[in-house]
């Protein structure tokens, strides 16, 4: 693993990641390939009820631990959905000086949506190569659990754990350029990870918190 090359790539990706311009908020089209909103009408305890739900693609997430460097491998990227949590609920142009793109950068597990007809572990392998640059065999992946998101989002996420070494870092990582992905690879030591998840507010989805907590509870040999 060429650490200097990785740092240089990360610096380039950070600059491109924050190059967000001319953003505006509009209605979501009904033919979106990514989400499908519906309203569920039902009776519950003898009362008429409604519940609005957004159906999204199922996905995989991977807890990645580099045994050579004794660090968890995570990713950073600009997430428009997370950025939207900081914006006023109105349509139109976004003031990117008042709301800088840095607000939308999240720290996450390596992950991806299930949009291919192949075993989930193979999709996890693909995401590990594309995002983090590691090529690990399918048998190195340990299935942890599958959990579902509730409230207004409806999809399942399958969580895996994999241990990698510097020698497995044979791809550039950084995401699939053909899909416009800009992903920074981040390595955190165990003390750094503990400090992050114990902070007052984290810029991460729940699956990172669950994945890191699972790692700390189930891999004590790597946490001392």
List strands and helices in order, with pairings.
Blueprint: H1 3-17, E1 24-25, E2 35-44, E3 47-56, E4 59-66, E5 71-78, H2 80-84, E6 92-93, E7 105-108, E8 110-113, H3 120-132, E9 141-149, E10 153-164, E11 184-188, H4 190-197, H5 206-218
What does it look like?
- The longest helix is centred in the first third of the chain and has 15 residues.
- β2 and β3 form a beta hairpin.
- The strands form 2 sheets. Strands 2, 3, 4, 5, 7, 8, 9, 10 and 11 form a 9-stranded mixed beta sheet that branches. A two-stranded antiparallel ribbon has the order 1-6.
- It has 5 helices and 11 strands.
- The mean pLDDT is 94.
- It is of the alpha+beta class and 224 residues long.
Keywords:
nine-stranded mixed β-sheet; 24% helix; 224 residues; two-stranded antiparallel sheet; alpha+beta; globular; single chain; 11 strands
Pattern of helices and strands: HEEEEEHEEEHEEEHH
Q: Residue share in helices?
A: 10-25%
Q: Count of DSSP helices? A: 5
How far apart are the termini? 24 Å
Structural class, from secondary structure content? Answer: alpha+beta
- Largest sheet report: 9 strands, mixed
Number of strands: 11
Q: Quote the average pLDDT.
A: 94
Regions with little confidence, pLDDT below 50 for 5+ residues? none
Q: What overall form do the CA principal axes indicate?
A: globular
Radius of gyration: 19 Å
How much of the sequence lies in strands comes to 25-35%
